[in-house]
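Below is the record:
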Amino acid sequence: MSVIIDIAGLPPERLVFSPAPLAELFAALHALAEPGHHPGLHGWTTATNAALKPDLADRLCDANFLWTSSFSDISLPFAALPDADGRPGATLAEDLDMLDRLDDDVFVDAALEISCTSTYGRGGPSPLSDAEARAHALERAAARGPRQVDFATRLLEDPPAVRAWIRRLFEDCAEVFFDDVWQRVRVELAADARHKTQVLRHKGLADALAEVSPAVALEDDGSRISVDKLTSGRTSALDAAVGAGVTLVPSSFGWPHLWVLHAPRWRPVIHYPAAAPQLPGPGSLELLELRMEALAHPMRIRMCRYLARSAYTTTELAAAHDISAPEVSRHIAALRKAGLITTRRRGRYVHHQLDLTVVARLGSDFLEGVLR
């Protein structure tokens, strides 16, 4: 599965790297709402959440479905404005002014859409004017609880009032914590954008995308950007309605997330982490699926307990588990195909051992379990 952005014939200058203050605010709000996603930010999220006044914390809870399990497209308003030329504002105030310029249909549809649902990317009538779309929006909000239903209902009944409420919420966040955050990170993000722009100019798009993330790649014929995600979607960077191009937005708060705006009638945007812990690059989702399937078999789990401790031959494993050597070989082949074990030959003996570095990246509970 992946999100595909068609770029056939797109001039290189139509690819823009740029920080986006409102998108960074959303990323910060997401980290505050889901601190478990961002262990590297634990100190900041704990201190910032503790310092929030009850009124602001309560209002953030009212609107948090805009940035928790989904990431609302209203965080990137420039992508729906043709005259923005694919560029965010230089300040949060400029981004909020762009947000104010979106018409009510576009704003409400984006605010109530959920990018991880199967309907995202299909387009359709606005919930402001279509009863069925309205019912679906309220149904999705209901799945997240009464606060979200109340927020969605108010937005559908009085968009201008709720839009003003949202702007004031973001301005209060800026005053309380985000202005300081932006002063600290904007230089880093601007430097990241400049660097990748230079790579694009001097080495080409494939190299620039490789520096964005191992999950982002230019396909061999150069006509499509592919983003490896556990979702499927497709959009075009050649939509004249919003101006041809793709914008790539760095984030200091983003890791481990990689967001892709691929809604109809919006410019494609890739919102990527500018910095990440010093870990090996992520494997493909296809490889992750292969590894999970390999470990789903109870006999392989039992074998991993041995292979985690030391290297074993096929004969040893067969004796330990009271199964035949050919059966052990089939299980070893599945684990090897998934990249979970290493194999080395010592004379006429072939030894197999679990690759603990790889397994650790799948999860500490599994590693601790097999080593227990």
Observations:
- Residues 159-203 form the longest helix (45 residues).
- The mean pLDDT is 88.
- The CA atoms of residues 125 and 134 lie 9 Å apart.
- The chain is about 50% helix and 10% strand.
